[in-house]
Amino acid sequence: MTTSINEQMKILAELQKIDTDVYRLKKELSTHPEAQKKLETEFEKRKVSVKSAEDALKAMQLKQKQKESDLASSEDKIAKLQTQLYQLKSNKEYAAMDHEIKGLKADKSLLEEDILKILDSVDEAKGLLAKEKEVLAKEEKLHQTQLAELKKKSDELNQQVAQEEGKRKTYTPGIEARLLSQYEKILKSREGLALVPVVNNACGGCHLGLPPQTINEILQHEKLIVCESCARILYWPE
Known about the structure:
This protein is mainly alpha-helical. It has two domains: 5-26 and 176-235, no CATH class; 31-168, Helix Hairpins. The chain has helices at residues 5-30, 32-85, 91-168, 177-189, 212-220; strands at 195-199, 202-203, 233-235. A hairpin with a 2-residue loop joins strand 1 and strand 2 (202-203).
């Protein structure tokens, strides 16, 4: 026996409650990928800060190594010239080489000063890197916690959706296939709201005022009535 329009509308009203919840849950779920992406982006920024600190330290250490190499070369050159100095026979050659040695020693002193300054900068860079790593470690813990919370929430929402969709299956058999098809088509095009009550003689979806004839047709429960403005199915709430 075919269920009356009135009875089917009652079933549809219950179905709409479920679908409203389903669409709400799915809408919330749809925001989670973007939320996760935001968390990942923010964490990557912190990793970039650590990488910058590492690069700064490496550059400073490379500069230190170069200066130390220059210093070693200078010391080696001074040592060789000093060995040669006492082998020279003329005072002129001796004076020229002695002058060169003094110049190299002056340059050596400047290199040693530069190295001391660089060592201070290396220590400072190491300290900064240690702080950045410490912050990163804390951020990583927070990041993992936030991801875990987001996943937990996603799992809970998916579970709720599954439960609601399970309930939904208990209602659909009581609705004629043609009516259910029309309802679901409107549901999809109107973002989860296909069936709306008449509120103050107006459509509960778009709030357009309904003419008396339409109100009477709805009350007669003889056929399906849709809003001329938003195409949603109309029903009279009891």
